[in-house]
């Protein structure tokens, strides 16, 4: 899957920019942002899949999987072999037993809730205490999460904050609930412009 060429401003592809230019409502703009995020997610997954076979980790996992499968097949054909392996080579037998037990636990583990294309969840075993599996936690960590606002000290800075809020909604770095609360805060800040001053008042000197 070829990675789409993105513009520098908002990271849209040519197709997404065309849809963005035709957008008329706030929901239309959000939809374009979600479309871009979903495309990026697919590209990241495809890039990971393409690079994985050439990695050292892939080679080791392949060797481990093949050896584990061979051991399982051997024990299915000759169950008495497990007792012999434990007696003659307890250390390696314990490694196999640990892997087998962990695999059974993984099969019973709660599944990753990350929404894949089509709306279906990932279903890989998720990391303990998290909503997602290792791969999708890594993908989420790569997404921008920090949202910074300027000091709301004058009309210009409040306008910049409004622009950043709109951008955050489109980028997916700001959810709708937070944006609604932030809009209220900015409204209050705008109503206070001209009513407050952080400069010390000048004291007129009395002329004696």
Strand content: under 5%
Tally of helical runs:
8
Shape: elongated
- The total strand number stands at 0
Q: Structural class, judged by helices and strands? A: mainly alpha
How widely separated are the two ends? 84 Å
DSSP helix fraction: 55-70%
Radius of gyration: 28 Å
Along the chain, the helix and strand elements come as HHHHHHHH
Largest sheet: none
Oligomer: single chain
The unreliable regions are none
Mean model confidence by pLDDT: 76
How would you describe what is shown here?
The protein is built from 8 helices and no strands. With 208 residues, the protein is mainly α. The longest helix has 26 residues, at 26-51.
Helices and strands in order:
Layout: H1 14-22, H2 26-51, H3 56-77, H4 80-88, H5 90-108, H6 134-141, H7 155-171, H8 176-192
Helix pairs in contact: 1-2, 4-5, 7-8
Short description:
The chain has 208 residues and is an all-alpha fold. It has a domain at 155-192.
């Amino acid at each position: 899957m070829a990675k789409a060429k993105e513009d520098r401003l908002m990271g849209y592809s040519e197709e997404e920019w065309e849809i963005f230019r035709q957008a008329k409502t706030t929901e239309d703009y959000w939809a374009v942002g979600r479309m871009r995020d979903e495309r990026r997610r697919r590209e990241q997954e495809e890039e990971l899949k393409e690079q994985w076979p050439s990695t050292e980790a892939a080679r080791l996992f392949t060797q481990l999987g093949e050896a584990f499968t061979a051991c399982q097949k051997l024990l299915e054909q000759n169950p008495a072999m497990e007792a012999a392996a434990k007696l003659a080579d307890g250390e390696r037998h314990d490694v196999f037993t640990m892997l087998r037990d962990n695999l059974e636990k993984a099969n019973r583990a709660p599944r990753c809730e990350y929404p894949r294309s089509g709306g279906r969840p990932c279903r890989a075993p998720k990391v303990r205490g998290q909503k997602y599996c290792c791969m999708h936690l890594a993908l989420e960590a790569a997404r921008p999460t920090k949202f910074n606002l300027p000091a709301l000290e004058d009309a210009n800075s409040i306008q910049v904050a409004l622009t950043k809020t709109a951008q955050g909604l489109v980028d997916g770095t700001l959810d709708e609930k937070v944006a609604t609360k932030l809009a209220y805060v900015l409204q209050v800040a705008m109503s206070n412009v001209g009513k407050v001053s952080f400069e010390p008042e000048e004291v007129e000197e009395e002329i004696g």
